[in-house]
Amino acid sequence: SKYPKLVLEWSKKHEIACHGYDGGLPMPDRVKRLEDYCRLHKELLGHNPEGFRAGTHTIDDIQLQLLEKYGFLYDSSVIPRYIPFRKYVGYKGKAPTEPYYPSYNNYRERGVHKILEIPNSPLLLGIPLSGTYIRVLGPLAYRFLLRLQKPIFLSLSMHSWDAIHHYGPFPQNSGETFLNYLEII
């Protein structure tokens, strides 16, 4: 971790989960990366990770089985709806919009998996409640969307860089500005 002190501080109020890699890796690489992350998490925070979200939301049936094997309690990679005018690699079709236990044969359907799927909350037109979109659209757009839709279940997906001023993808409104946006929403 580049910022172990910040991670430790955040872990006092928030759960720190694993943000994995893009899908499509061969099984030995998936296992090695997952083992490396679990070891780092335990060394830094003193316990095993409970949650996972695949990079670019590229989860699959094999990955869910691997997460279950390593003791993860939930995954939050599935995008159940998506903005109709934008293609996104992680969107693979409709899925339940509230938490569910996936099928072993199709993670986008309900089943008997032991790992809970907590899907990314789709708001009006499929716009997700996520760090990048919050930084780009601003808090007032989300307050408006949340008043229109009033979802039963809501999940927020963000990266650590959203809360730290950075110069990576979409750096505008990161750091303190982003944290203030969350308070407004």
Description:
By secondary structure, the protein is mostly helical. It has six helices and four strands, in the order H-E-H-E-H-E-E-H-H-H. It has helices spanning about 5-10, 25-45, 60-70, 130-135, 140-150, 175-185; strands at about 20, 50-55, 75, 115. A four-stranded parallel beta sheet has the order 1-2-3-4. The longest helix has 19 residues, at about 25-45.
Gist of the model:
The protein is mainly alpha-helical and 185 residues long. It is built from 6 helices and 4 strands, in the order H-E-H-E-H-E-E-H-H-H.
Helix content: 25-40%
Low-pLDDT residue spans: none
N-to-C terminal Cα separation, in Å? 29 Å
Taking all residues together, what is the mean pLDDT? Answer: 87
> How would you name the oligomeric state of the polypeptide chains in this document?
single chain
Strand content: under 5%
Main sheet record: 4 strands, parallel
Please write the string of helix (H) and strand (E) elements. HEHEHEEHHH
